[in-house]
Amino acid sequence: MTKYLVLLPEALVVAGAVVVLLLARFGPSRYRRWRRALPAVAALILLAALAVELRVGADVGSYFGGGLLVDRFGLFVKAAVLLAAAVGIAVADWGAEDSMSIGLAMPMLAVFGVMVVASGGDFLSVWAGLELAGAAGVVMLATRRPDSALRLLLLGAAASALMLIGLAYVYATAGSADLGAVHAALLGVAPTLPLAVPVLVLLGALIYRASLAPLQLGAGHGLAAPSPMSIGLVAGLGAAAAVVAAVKVSVAVGAVSVAFSPYVEIVAAVAMAGGGAGALAARSPRTRIAFLVAGQTGWVIAGLATQFRGGIGATIFLLGALVVAATAAPAAAGAAGISELAVSGLGTLRPARAAALTLAMLSLAGAPPMAGFFGEFTIGAALARTGHLELLAVGLLGSLLSLVAAIGTVRVLYLQNPPDEGRRGLVALPVWTRLSAFGAIALCVVIAGYGLFANPISSLADQGAAALGLR
Q1: For residue 277, how many other CB atoms are within 10 A of its CB?
Q2: Can you give 128-159 as a three-state secondary structure string?
Q3: Which one, 127, 174, 288, 377, has the greatest CB density within 10 A?
């Protein structure tokens, strides 16, 4: 019976997504009664799944012949994505979305994909969960930007093909697709060139997906820009799925992964410096958020280069802070996030939403004492400990640029006067509802609480690294 209870959180998320989609097929008059309540229902389903996960996920075990792993790593990741999606849905301005049913169902399916990756015990489940999260992002983008969706689909397909090639070589070498069996087979194996190249291809494809997804959304398109929830899904949940897969696979291949460490350093340096520079150059808050996410994703990738428990634990800790802020920040900005003028004076007109956006952006920029700062600090300490001083210097430069950019948006939110309706143009202020106000307050509490309780949360992340077999 226990093995079926551990599937209850995933079942709740999938059932919730299906229910939301089916409600859209009701008659217009009947569906209109449910429409306003759907975001609250979806958020409650995710919170219920989180409560169940905290209960059943505390019992460590392996089920279905090792295909499902219940450990501290999976518990940490699944709790983070469930909380991020619930807060993002609650704080979103649903008037700025093209389809409420798609806008609610796709994030829930993406959450399910990340949960599958986090709990997967073999290559097949990790690949399937990653593809599901990526497909949800493509569908979400396609509702408004088919060109962006097609580009993301093609890039994801290329990365998936490279990933499958790498998985095939590793499977042929280890003789098993089970992550634990692969780790045992490659333990102590010298990184020979015939094995190092497939591992480089495999992990390179995963890191490519994690780092490039936010940058794909960096270019603004005015009123035709992707919807706020689609940006949060791709930059937050989609990137999180790739990072979680990269963590699990890099630990499984063991010492062989040392061979790809220089490549990881290059990608991390480009993401950290490029994200910070792009955020500083951007003027649209939505574009700036995308570049801030890319910069902090670079820090997460940099943690993979350390290849020891402290560094991977720091990566897991920062991933939790990143996925919450990256998923919810675009939703908090709403349609007004497409231009700096539209969010001018938002601190006066929508104080709760402006506070949520401020804390999320400062966390993404690594400003103390936000959650992102403590995550970047712990990764920086791991980089210094392992001798990656050049990468640390690039990361500090990128964080400085990101912080200046985030402060620029905060200045616009609070120190500039709101424009009149004629100057605001076609961009309306985000609507105020009880749910959005509650979501904004909840986002502030989550980000502030993550920084306030950084020590115990970091300890849980370290336990997650230990559950992967790291010492």
Answers
A1: 17
A2: HHHHHHHHHHHHHHHCCCHHHHHHHHHHHHHH
A3: 288
Instruction: Match 């700036």 to its residue by tokens.
Output: 288
The DSSP annotation for 78-113 comes to HHHHHHHHHHHHHH--GGGSS-HHHHHHHHHHHHHH
107: Cβ contacts below 8 Å, ≥ 6 apart:
85, 88, 89, 136, 140, 229, 232, 233, 237, 327
Given a contact cutoff of 8 angstroms between Cβ atoms, the answer to whether 149 and 138 are in contact is yes
Contact assessment for residue 268 and residue 287, using Cβ atoms and an 8 Å cutoff: no
C-alpha 82/C-alpha 45 separation (Å) is: 10
Stretch 47-53: mean pLDDT, rounded?
Answer: 92
pLDDT digits (tens, 9 = 90+) for 427-466: 667 777 888 889 899 999 999 998 888 888 888 888 888 8
158, HSE (Cβ side, Cα atoms, 13 Å): 10
Burial of 181 (0-12, 13-18, 19+ CB in 10 A): middle
**Exposure of 264 in the CB half-sphere (CA atoms within 13 A):** 27
Q: How far apart are CA 295 and CA 221, in angstroms?
A: 21
Q: Which domain holds residue 140?
A: 2-467
As a whole number of angstroms, the distance between CA 158 and CA 343 comes to 37
Rounded Cα gap, residues 244 and 446, in angstroms: 21
Radius of gyration of the chain (CA): 21
DSSP lists the bridge partners of residue 62 as: 69
pLDDT in tens, 123-164: 888 899 999 998 888 888 888 778 778 888 888 888 888 888
| Separation of alpha carbons 175 and 181, rounded Å | 8
Q: What is the pTM of this model?
A: 0.90
Q: What share of the chain is helix, strand, coil (3-state, %, to 5)?
A: 80, 0, 20
Task: Give the span between the Cα atoms of 52 and 383, in whole angstroms.
Answer: 36
Write the burial class of residue 349 (CB in 10 Å: 0-12 exposed, 13-18 middle, 19+ buried): middle
Per-residue confidence (pLDDT) for residue 220, from 0 to 100: 46
* pLDDT higher than threshold 80 for residue 13: yes
Give the whole-angstrom CA distance, residue 120 versus residue 112: 12
